[in-house]
Amino acid sequence: MNAKLDSTVTTRPVTRQTYDEVLVPTYAPAQMVPVRAAGLDLWDQEGKRYLDFTSGIAVAALGHCNPIVVEALVRQANTVWHLGNGYTNEPVLRLGLAITEATFADRAFFCNSGAEANEAALKLARKHAHAKYGEHKSRIVSCLNSFHGRTLFTVSVGGQPKYTEGFEPLPPSIDHIPYNDIEAARAAIGDDVCAVIVEPVQGEGGVMPGNPEYLQELRALCDKTGALLIFDEVQCGMGRTGSLFAYMGYGVTPDVLTSAKALGNGYPVAAMLTTEELAKSLAVGTHGTTYGGNPLAATVALTVLETINQPAFLARVKEASLYLIGKLEELVRDYPQVFGIVRGAGLLLGIVVTDEFKGRSKDIQRAVEAEGLMVLIAGPDVVRLAPALIVTDAQIDEAMALMRKGLDKLLAAR
């Protein structure tokens, strides 16, 4: 029988090899295949349990299969799924009210991914600048080692050449400056700049927090030149730093903010937030998305937002962060040949490797995964931890024990 017509295709066995046979090879996933998860626990096809300190790259902030989120999704799935943008829906109206009331923003645009949210933010900046100042004001300033998405526009704005190689010619009028370099920012941000986009905490670029003085200077330079300040909080937002959004902890308010990842706890949803005045630049017909703000996504996002945006919840994130940082610093002291420093914010933390292990963050990731701990990397020299925000002290202790077992075996094998 033709496999494409085989009625058993939804139940027949698949393995990691199936990935190599049928999927476009844009990733090199781990050899184990996760099949079930709950909270911070995850099991693969062989029944092996893992402690997940990745949360799907800072996505499952409330843990896998959180019952509150599941209940909301199922309830909405039995009500209405999709309407199309010729209509609005009650869940997205409630979400819009909640997220604007919780932030600086007056208006929200909902879409499906961080890349789409950043695309909308950058288009808004160009549209606003062209209308107010003229088409000469179109340059975008970003930071080296930043990451803003994988569309041609957003990957060009991101300051990592490895992601743009082979896709030239790239969109013009985009410049990159060193992160946390105030003098470079002053030199680059002139009257022809329409937008400055920055991650308050760089994620993919090595888990690098922005210096408060740097972000404050970006705000001042944008005010001076009429550029829009865009904060990309796709990874560091939604409670990850201990504030609902990182800008709140810095006391620097952007003109535009983008959110995704944890906003849906794994359900695809993203938001671009901005002010009443700026939102006017995206009038009817200037931008859109088929699935953005659909009832399913909006219901999930509202549930996540209401759960995270509670004083006690955010206080616990800060408490867990301090506990995890302390344990990681112990790890640095006990494994000085492997790790140098701990950096990051909240529960988005990175451990920088020493010169002896330079370029080997992936080896460390594999070693601890073999012991049952899932961690991330942030480039070749940083091991990244982004556990669910509901992580307990006991789970942190278990993670550190598994990390030590993996490191011991890695060192013994040298």
UniProtKB/TrEMBL annotation:
Keywords, in A-Z order: Amino-acid biosynthesis, Aminotransferase, Arginine biosynthesis, Cytoplasm, Pyridoxal phosphate, Transferase
Main subcellular location: cytoplasm
Compartment annotation: Cytoplasm
Binding-site list for N(2)-acetyl-L-ornithine: R150, T289
A cellular-component GO term for this protein: cytoplasm
Pathway connected to this protein: Amino-acid biosynthesis; L-arginine biosynthesis; N(2)-acetyl-L-ornithine from L-glutamate: step 4/4; Amine and polyamine biosynthesis; ectoine biosynthesis; L-ectoine from L-aspartate 4-semialdehyde: step 1/3
Catalytic activity: N(2)-acetyl-L-ornithine + 2-oxoglutarate = N-acetyl-L-glutamate 5-semialdehyde + L-glutamate
GO molecular function: diaminobutyrate-2-oxoglutarate transaminase activity; identical protein binding; N2-acetyl-L-ornithine:2-oxoglutarate 5-aminotransferase activity; pyridoxal phosphate binding
Co-factor requirement: pyridoxal 5'-phosphate
GO biological process: L-arginine biosynthetic process
EC number: 2.6.1.11
Record Gene3D superfamilies: Aspartate Aminotransferase, domain 1, Type I PLP-dependent aspartate aminotransferase-like (Major domain)
Binding-site list for pyridoxal 5'-phosphate: G114, A115, F147, D232, E233, V234, Q235, T290
Keyword Amino-acid biosynthesis attributed: yes
Highest taxon in the source lineage: Bacteria
Residues that bear N6-(pyridoxal phosphate)lysine: K261
Cofactor remark: Binds 1 pyridoxal phosphate per subunit.
Transmembrane stretches, start-end: none
Family of the protein in this entry: Belongs to the class-III pyridoxal-phosphate-dependent aminotransferase family. ArgD subfamily.
Miscellaneous note of the record: May also have succinyldiaminopimelate aminotransferase activity, thus carrying out the corresponding step in lysine biosynthesis.
Subunit structure: Homodimer.
Stated name of the protein: Acetylornithine aminotransferase
